[in-house]
Specification:
InterPro entries: Ac/propionate_kinase, Aliphatic_acid_kin_short-chain, Aliphatic_acid_kinase_CS, ATPase_NBD
Shape: globular
Number of helices: 14
Function: Catalyzes the formation of acetyl phosphate from acetate and ATP. Can also catalyze the reverse reaction.
Low-confidence stretches: none
Order of helices and strands: EEEEEHEEHHEHHHEEEHHHHHEHHEEH
Structural class: alpha/beta
Strand order of the largest sheet: 5-4-3-2-1-6-8-7
GO molecular function, one term: ATP binding
CATH topology of the largest domain: Nucleotidyltransferase, domain 5
Helix content: 25-40%
Largest sheet: 8 strands, mixed
Bound molecules: adenosine-5'-diphosphate
Oligomer: single chain
Number of strands: 14
Subunit structure: Homodimer.
Mean pLDDT: 96
CATH architecture of the largest domain: 2-Layer Sandwich
Keywords: ATP-binding, Cytoplasm, Kinase, Magnesium, Metal-binding, Nucleotide-binding, Transferase
Radius of gyration: 21 Å
Number of domains: 2
Length: 397
Amino acid sequence: MSKTISINAGSSSLKWKLFEMPDEVVVASGIVERIGLPDSIFTIKYGDGQKYETTADIQDHEVAVEMLLEQLTELNIIESFDEITGVGHRVVAGGEKFSESTLIDDDVIQAIEDLAEFAPLHNPANATGIKAFKKVLPDITSVAVFDTSFHTSMPKKNYLYSIPMQYYEKHNARRYGAHGTSHRYVSNRAAEIIGQPIEDLKIVTAHLGNGASITAVDGGKSVDTSMGFTPLAGVTMGTRSGDIDPSLLPFIMRKEGIADINEMVRILNNESGLKGLSGVSSDMRDIESAAAEGNEDAQVALDIFNDRVRKYIGQYAATMNGIDVLVFTAGIGENAANVRQAVADGLSFLGLKVDPDKNDVRGEERIISTDDSKVKVLLIPTDEELMIARDVEALKD
Ligand code: ADP
């Protein structure tokens, strides 16, 4: 049976999941961390709960891929390399060029590198992962799956900022969004679960993890999304501010003596959001427990998070002139029942009602709205890796 591997390469890490296709069975998964540093950590999970872990000096992504394939054979997860017939790579920025998943050739690699301007930390790392696999397994189907592709269906009125048109025309300054693979997976899954064609549905998908984004999916197409030119925009996140008035930047810089705009952007990306508000943590679990113990800043951080998520859902109901389905996914969306309940409670004017008993669940695919709710509310664990493997499968000849 042929296997496909989904890859998410970071600058010093390589996360992967191996599927038997077309059955979509997960055979193994793992992560290589600290690539290029001493004592890289190499982990494989396989079988029924077995785990292999070792440390070694893994100097680059190519060595990581070689080691991964050797260990897969060693642990009898595959008999030979030939079993792996496809690889799908997550790529963060696809710009306007890549509206769908694409077979990788040298031109595609070059284009991914050229798009680094839009994702300076991610695209070069994604390209490194691609090249490493190309070198070690040159003949298998190799596919790039872009976080932005799903959002290329947005109409101009939703992707343009209200700034001089020349900045879009000259520099492609516009909204691109992110988490597209997740929004695509959960919106399609939602339609399947409720048994209606996605073409007939107005869906809002709330991907609430460390990074969080909300998307309006009308008839199966993304028509608007909360992240913007970069993933800094939209709702309050773990460490990211989400939407703010840009005039705050020169004001804070002047008051705080911050000379470099890049330092200000770093603060908005890394020191803001739940972390900056609460002073406690960027992690929702810590925020919830600090708030429960009476920490007022943590409570206000939680209130702001819920409020921003709720507002975007309301906004997107207006964008689509209606909402049939709301989906919660990712770390917070899948696990934080209180967040789901609080968000939903403020949307009762839409006829949206979450059933507290059905909502008392973590990480399990299910409908959590009441039977009489006009809007179906679902919890769907996201599966970007599976979506990537499916895209590879669809492009195999
Ligand atoms: P990433 O964007 O890094 O992939 P995840 O989707 O893994 O993030 O989500 C991480 C977030 O999910 C963290 O804020 C974490 O606190 C939150 N989370 C995970 N489990 C729970 C839980 N049981 N209750 C509340 N929040 C949770």
